Amino acid sequence: MGKFDRYAFNAAPEFKEAEVRKAFARAVPLKTLVIYCYDPRAAEIPDAVARLFGDEVFPGEVVHDSAGMRVASSTTIFPVVVAGGRAVDALRSITVAQHLFGLQNIVVVHHSHCGATTFTPDGIIDAYRHEHGADISDLYERGSICIDEFEASLKRDAALIRSHPGTPKHVNIFGYFFDIDTGALTEVVKDIAQAIESA
Predict the structure, then answer these.
(1) What are the two backbone dihedrals, phi and then psi, of residue 70, each rounded to the nearest 5 degrees?
(2) From CA 107, how far away is CA 86, in angstroms rounded?
(3) Comparing C-alpha atoms, which of 191, 179, 25 is closest to residue 106?
(4) How confident is the model at residue 119, as a pLDDT?
(5) Which strand (E) or helix (H) includes residue 36?
(6) What is the DSSP string of 72-96?
(7) What CA–CA distance (Å, rounded) separates 191 from 92?
């Protein structure tokens, strides 16, 4: 038994994955996953999305059981914080969030004066080759490495999310530009899911 196994749900003798999933879905009323940049100036993006959507809760309250253990949360927004807010880095998180909690919306936000606009794909590839002796030219699709133009990057990321097999077909996908100086969100993409017909 590993040192930390007592903290792992799947290490418990009575573990049943389907039951754990049901419990997780009840414990956190997740509705919206927000992908945004790790720039500290962009930290208020989940709050801005919550205000814009109106019925969202972020960060919410942590719920404790009678023993004082942290067992749930009232948040409806999950933040996924990645370089430049690029969707390619969030795809696994989308799949896992859907599996554990279910999703209604996925929101991608790119922000003004982002560091991802300060370099090019060729620039970072060349820098890694010269500074680290590593060839990263085949690691990432070039259109997802940096941000050349905000509207194009948001449209590209929304399309990437929609086409990914790990994205549930029933979710709505939005793309917003966030002005870090004013806090304003401007809608660039609104991809509302089509109703899924039952067989």
Answers:
(1) -80, 110
(2) 11
(3) 191
(4) 96
(5) strand 32-37
(6) EE---EEEEEEGGG-GGGGHHHHHH
(7) 20
Give the pLDDT confidence of 83-98 residue by residue, as tens digits: 999 999 999 999 999 9
Residue 199 pLDDT level (bands cut at 50, 70, 90): very low
Task: List the structure tokens of 6.
Answer: 């007592």
Rounded Cα–Cα distance for residues 131 and 116 (Å): 19
Backbone dihedral region for residue 96 (phi beyond 0: left; psi -120 to 50: alpha; all else: beta): alpha
- Give kind and range of the element (H or E) at residue 108: strand 105-111
Pairing mode, strands 70-73 and 62-64: antiparallel
pLDDT of residue 195: 63
* Model pLDDT for residues 111-132, shown as the tens digit of each residue: 999 999 999 999 999 999 999 9
What letter does residue 137 receive in the DSSP assignment? Answer: T
Q: What are the structure tokens assigned to 113, written together?
A: 């004066």
- Picking from 68, 10, 30, 31, the residue whose alpha carbon sits closest to that of residue 174 is 31
Lookup: tokens for 188:
């660039």
